[in-house]
Design the sequence.
């Protein structure tokens, strides 16, 4: 019985990692860059919803909408200001810039909101499910997170495969130069990718803060890094891979805490990353890309 | 002597050694005559440690061209292994100097061993993967050091990950106490030793860069595939550079840890790795002297500008972004060429030499 | 060659100028002041504690100066930030030494305190920490503290739970990457063996895994714990309370002084904290005259903020320095080392009745005072 409850808690955590990983994997697949600031956009989304919904007392749907819009705009601005000038530069330069952006967001949040945590009121009003005479509980947040995660995955898959903009993304991810020659607006497509990725980050932020109702300036940092681990696990660039990778990672973390050692939870999760990269660097669903000279 | 000096890189290196020695001479004199503020006196050893860290990270980031976000992890290994050694032999090895010398070797070698252990598998990866794996590695090390309990008594050493797993006899002594880390560490680090270590680091790194291996490493950075096709063993040279880099990170960790009486993992986190990266980026990737100057300035400046600490990390992040865009943006290259200080100076020189034909010199 | 000479002379000039910046200024201590320094984090994640200590200490200094100072000397107080980092704390100490500090009130957090104690011992400077609670934080004989030590809190908690028969089965969640938390937990566990209850589950978390506590809570719930001991800080406790509630787990929650501040978390549902028991030396709503006055003054001076236990410890620390300095008859012509020696003896002879109780000291620097327990009732702390 307790095994099942650890499993549920792992899936709940894992589905949040999955939503974050979806954003990571999209940006990585198309812009070919590790957007280190992705985790911090989650935090911005959380604070935006907190400020609008709780400090200003607005309706929670408006607050969520504002949160998503703020993050989308932020994602586009970051792309334009920090990443676009570096298109064509070495990946090292882009990565260091992304780390800079991540730090900038964290420290801005620290200055604006302070280091004291803020309690988040869950936006989910789905009641929890009790099973086996109340010994097992599945919280409303868990149910909503999993449903949202699946919806996002399906919509994204349809969007990429069926719409023109989506196919442009595929083209850009295959070959930027060729795509441009075929009349695809590469800059626009990359900006759109960042917009979608950041909107997903906002959704993830809202769900993260609802499930674990507290927000601090570093809220997004660790989940962000773990979600990247999940994306690598599932095969970076692959949408179903992000979902599966996220959930597996969440379950590993939860079961590791329960059965191996709660002190060594970090070591366990990160060892998974290293092992995956060593055994199958392309992840579960990843495809091998041969380097062209 | 003259032929030696004619080589530009040698001349540059000698200037760097000279500057470090002058720095030492000035501050050591001030410190011994008691006319140096205690604030700066206390900063001398950390500065040496940061300089070593920056120079060694520059070897990975600037020369090898791979991003390591786990430099603090190697520093942590150096610090923990050497502190365990120092505390265990505090009573048996009476000579502070000998003990610290051995501690330095142990710290450096342990870090280098870990460098090899994680380097062999991960250096096959490149770019972003390498960065994230080194980050993960740093977190794992921190996590493990945090739960480590080590004690010794007349029956030998005991290691455990729980307080209760180390049961010592009456004469026993705890060395590491999990999150509480180690305390009563002998303060063996001195400015003199620090500067000697800086000079050794510089010597090794400069010679490495100028050697055949160094050129091989740089060719990997500039074009991996081309380097591979000319027969360069990529993994070997990458591993060599990475191991040297982690060795010196371990040395720096040892130096740093033996300057304070307490050792906890808090210092050796992701933020420290980033701070070292900022030194390297600000000083110029691949530019050793730049790293030294950046480490020096960024350690001293925040102390002079106390009260601005809230903004320090914010400024760091802006500096990181601005420097990267300025240095790496393909679009800005043209503008930079036009307005670079070096070019303006060169132009002036040429103008002088050519007298009135300034326009021609342009 | 001429060029080289020029370069060298330029370099020398630069060096001389730099040296001038770094050289120590002569110490000029006007004879009617006593310089007390304070160190603690006022930026970064631990800023809450440092800020509270700084505020309360400045309040106490203002009161003392208004009432004529210590032995006729006015008190000058200077605060330096250490960002909860050992290196920064030592640098802050050196900065204060350059300023001419004679007595150190600090540092606020444990690990930096341990690092600074090594330096104060070298200089033989008197040090009184309001809240550095690790054993090692006052390892030297020149260092004293106002708060309980971590082991003391662990032992006192175990004894309280045992004597009052609060529960038979106890679960613990602690932060295995934190000095304070592991310090209390280790002693709690040791003392629990002498008490009529059993620790059925002890689960850890670390600084990087402090969002999801459901696994730990599930495990503790499955073990049948009736009481959950939380030797952690209030930030994580707020999360644990919420998550325990949402999974329908309702044991008695018992915490130490780190839980103080729980009710001040922005937007925290105070109903969740109902019935939480804290072992803390100070409750802001106590009705004794001293506390009422302190809380009113503190609120008036600092934006209507309610002082926490760190503030109370700091306020007591300044008054303890005053009491010891008067007992030892300190005057400002004495050297730092002489002040320290005189204060050391005086500390063991004085009794201070402060906000956190009636305190006496032993020569090893530990404060002895009665632990108080506080229960959260109707969204406020009630002394028990």
Sequence:
């Amino acid at each position: 019985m307790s095994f099942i409850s650890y499993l549920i808690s792992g899936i709940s955590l894992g589905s949040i990692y999955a939503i974050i990983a979806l954003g990571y994997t999209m940006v990585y697949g198309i812009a070919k860059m590790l957007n280190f600031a992705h985790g911090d956009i989650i935090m911005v989304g959380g604070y935006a919803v907190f400020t609008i919904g709780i400090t200003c007392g607005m309706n929670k749907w408006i607050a969520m909408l504002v949160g998503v819009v703020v993050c989308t705009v932020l994602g586009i601005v970051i792309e334009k200001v920090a990443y676009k000038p570096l298109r064509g530069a070495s990946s090292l330069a882009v990565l260091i810039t992304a780390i800079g952006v991540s730090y900038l967001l964290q420290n801005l949040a620290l200055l604006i909101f302070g280091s004291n945590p803020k309690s988040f009121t869950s936006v989910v009003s789905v009641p929890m499910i009790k099973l086996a005479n109340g010994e097992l509980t599945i919280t409303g947040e868990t149910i909503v997170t999993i449903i949202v995660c699946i919806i996002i995955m399906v919509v994204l898959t349809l969007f990429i495969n069926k719409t023109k903009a989506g196919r442009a993304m595929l083209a850009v991810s295959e070959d930027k130069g060729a795509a441009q020659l075929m009349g695809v607006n590469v800059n626009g497509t990359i900006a759109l990718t960042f917009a979608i990725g950041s909107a997903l980050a906002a959704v993830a932020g809202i769900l993260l803060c609802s499930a674990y109702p507290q927000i601090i300036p570093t809220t997004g940092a660790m989940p962000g890094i773990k979600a990247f681990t999940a994306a690598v696990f599932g095969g970076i660039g692959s949408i179903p891979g992000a979902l599966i990778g996220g959930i597996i990672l969440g379950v590993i973390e939860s079961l590791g805490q329960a059965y191996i050692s709660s002190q060594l939870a970090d070591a366990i999760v990160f060892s998974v990353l290293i092992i995956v990269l060593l055994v199958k660097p392309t992840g579960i669903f990843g495809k091998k890309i041969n380097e062209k000279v | 002597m003259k032929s030696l000096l004619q080589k530009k890189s040698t001349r540059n290196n000698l200037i760097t050694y000279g500057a470090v020695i002058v720095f030492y001479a000035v501050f050591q004199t001030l410190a011994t005559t008691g006319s140096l503020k205690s604030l700066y006196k206390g900063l001398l050893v950390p500065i040496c440690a940061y300089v070593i860290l920056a120079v060694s990270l520059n070897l990975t980031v600037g020369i090898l061209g791979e991003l390591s976000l786990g430099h603090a992890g190697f520093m942590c290994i150096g610090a923990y292994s050497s502190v365990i050694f120092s505390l265990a032999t505090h009573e048996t090895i009476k000579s502070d100097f000998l003990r610290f010398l051995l501690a330095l070797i142990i710290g450096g070698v342990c870090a280098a061993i870990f460098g090899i252990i994680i380097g062999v598998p991960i250096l096959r990866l490149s770019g972003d993967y390498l960065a994230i794996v080194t980050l993960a590695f740093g977190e794992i090390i921190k996590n493990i050091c945090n739960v480590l309990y080590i004690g010794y008594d007349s029956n030998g050493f005991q290691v455990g990950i729980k307080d209760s797993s180390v049961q010592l006899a009456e004469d026993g002594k705890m060395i590491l106490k999990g999150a509480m880390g180690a305390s009563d560490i002998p303060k063996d680090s001195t400015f003199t030793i620090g500067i000697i270590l800086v000079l050794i680091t510089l010597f090794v790194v400069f010679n490495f860069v100028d050697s055949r291996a160094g050129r091989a490493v740089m060719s990997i950075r500039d074009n991996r595939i081309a380097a591979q096709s000319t027969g360069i063993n990529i993994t070997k040279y990458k591993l060599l550079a990475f191991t040297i880099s982690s060795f010196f990170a371990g040395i720096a960790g040892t130096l740093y840890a033996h300057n304070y009486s307490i050792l906890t993992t808090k210092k050796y986190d992701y933020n420290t790795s980033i701070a070292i990266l900022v030194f390297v980026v600000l000083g110029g990737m691949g530019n050793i002297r730049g790293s030294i100057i950046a480490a020096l300035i960024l350690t001293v400046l925040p102390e002079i500008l106390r009260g601005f600490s809230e903004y320090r990390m914010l400024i760091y992040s802006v500096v990181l972004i601005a420097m990267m865009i300025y240095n790496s943006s393909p679009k800005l290259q043209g503008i930079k060429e036009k307005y670079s200080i070096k070019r303006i100076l060169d132009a002036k020189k040429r103008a002088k030499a050519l007298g009135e034909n300034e326009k021609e010199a342009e | 060659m001429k060029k080289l000479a020029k370069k060298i002379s330029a370099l020398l000039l630069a060096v001389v100028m730099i040296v001038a910046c770094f050289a120590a200024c002569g110490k000029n201590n006007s004879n009617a002041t006593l310089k007390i320094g304070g160190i603690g984090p006022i930026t970064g994640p631990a800023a809450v504690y440092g800020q509270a200590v700084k505020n309360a200490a400045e309040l106490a200094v203002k009161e003392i100066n208004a009432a004529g100072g210590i032995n006729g000397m006015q008190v000058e107080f200077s605060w330096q930030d250490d960002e909860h980092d050992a290196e920064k704390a030592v640098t802050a100490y050196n900065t204060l030494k350059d300023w001419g500090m004679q007595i150190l009130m600090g540092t606020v957090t444990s690990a930096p305190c341990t690092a600074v104690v090594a330096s104060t011992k070298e200089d033989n400077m008197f040090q009184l920490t309001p809240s550095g609670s690790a054993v090692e934080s006052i390892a030297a004989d020149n260092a004293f503290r106002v708060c309980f030590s971590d082991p003391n809190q662990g032992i006192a908690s175990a004894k309280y739970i045992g004597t009052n028969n609060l529960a038979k089965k106890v679960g613990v969640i602690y932060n295995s990457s934190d000095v304070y938390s592991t310090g209390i937990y280790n002693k709690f566990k040791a003392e629990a063996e002498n008490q009529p209850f059993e620790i059925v589950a002890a689960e850890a978390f670390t600084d990087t895994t402090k969002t999801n506590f459901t696994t730990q809570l599930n495990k503790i719930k499955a073990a049948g714990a009736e009481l959950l001991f939380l030797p952690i800080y209030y930030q994580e406790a707020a999360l644990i309370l919420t998550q325990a509630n949402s999974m329908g787990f309702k044991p008695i929650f018992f915490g130490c002084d780190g839980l103080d501040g729980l009710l001040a978390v922005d937007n925290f549902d105070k109903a969740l904290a109902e019935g939480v028991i804290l072992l803390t030396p100070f409750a802001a709503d106590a009705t004794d005259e001293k506390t009422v006055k302190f809380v009113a003054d503190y609120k008036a001076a600092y934006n209507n903020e309610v002082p926490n236990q760190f503030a109370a410890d700091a306020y007591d620390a300044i008054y303890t320095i005053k009491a010891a300095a008067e007992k030892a008859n300190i005057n400002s012509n004495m050297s730092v080392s002489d002040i320290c020696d005189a204060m050391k003896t005086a500390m063991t002879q004085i009794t201070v009745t402060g906000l956190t109780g009636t305190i006496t000291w032993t020569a090893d620097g530990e404060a002895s005072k009665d632990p108080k327990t506080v229960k959260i009732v109707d969204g406020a702390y009630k002394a028990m």
Remarks:
- The first strand of chain B starts at residue 149 and ends at 153.
- Chain B touches chain A through 50 residues (CB under 8 Å).
